[in-house]
Design goal:
Length: 255
């Protein structure tokens, strides 16, 4: 019986680990195939994250794809053409050839040996501005371009639609205090699994969030006031619920 329960505990621990992986999920991710995904709100500067930085290494180009966002690029500006070349999969005016039907969905940046361009300052960085049009209208995207030396972690940047804000998981029939206890356990579990460091900026935001909940604020209002997402709140609740289950099973084993 004890051996069976121990197996259950191991499985439960694995579940907690899987749930915890996206605990600090960002709107920018890099998968194992070398594709970096960036949501539209980040690339347009409408999120709390910094605008994306693209480092160009010798011998490696970087693609910027708007295929998944369903947009067509209408115009691009590379402020410092002395450090990189720019090409597209379609045709855009201003890139050296006439266009009968202007438009593109993929941009390609490639590092070049620095050129001496009159009237341009000698710097190793640039701003790339992209104007694209989709179903929701036209948007302006901005990227910081810099020169790097390390082998790049990605070869393609995919601009993807902004993820929808998930509904908050609230325990049915639970009071605010019960939700608070579950989320506090979730924060403790995240700390023990080294998903978050005490004293960090995110830690202070989460502490402020829990204080607001204790003061009677709704989960949605407390999250907004503390500057955290509902996705992160859901992760706290899930971690807290699984921690409670683990503690119960451990007590059964000990008895």
């Amino acid at each position: 019986m004890k051996a069976c329960l121990k197996s259950i505990v191991v499985i439960a621990s694995s579940v907690v680990t899987v749930l915890a992986e996206p605990f600090l999920a960002s709107a920018q991710t890099v998968n194992l195939k070398g594709v970096r995904q960036i949501s539209q709100d980040v690339a347009t500067g409408n999120s709390k994250e910094e605008i994306p930085k693209i480092e160009l290494s010798p011998g490696y180009g970087v693609n910027i794809s708007f295929i998944k966002s369903g947009e067509v690029v209408e115009k691009v500006w590379l402020d410092n053409p002395a450090i990189a070349s720019l090409d597209v999969d379609g045709c855009l005016s201003g890139l050296g050839r006439p266009c009968e039907t202007p438009g593109a969905t993929v941009l390609h940046l490639r590092r070049i040996n620095p050129l001496k361009v009159p009237q341009l300052p000698k710097i190793n960085s640039s701003l790339l501005t992209v104007v694209a049009k989709g179903n929701s209208g036209r948007q302006v995207y901005v990227f910081r371009v810099a020169m790097g030396d390390a082998t790049p972690e990605y070869h393609t940047i995919e601009v993807i639609p902004k993820p929808e804000e998930p509904e908050t998981i609230i325990l049915r029939g639970a009071t605010n205090i019960t939700n608070l206890q579950v989320m506090a356990r979730g924060l403790e579990a995240a700390q023990q699994q080294r998903l978050i460091s005490p004293g960090s900026r995110l830690w202070r935001r989460l502490e402020n969030f829990l204080v607001n909940i204790k003061a009677g604020e709704s989960i949605e209002n407390a999250a907004q006031q503390s500057g955290i997402s509902l996705q992160l709140v859901n992760r706290l609740i899930q971690l807290g619920q699984n921690r409670q289950l683990d503690n119960f099973k451990q007590r059964v084993i000990n008895n």
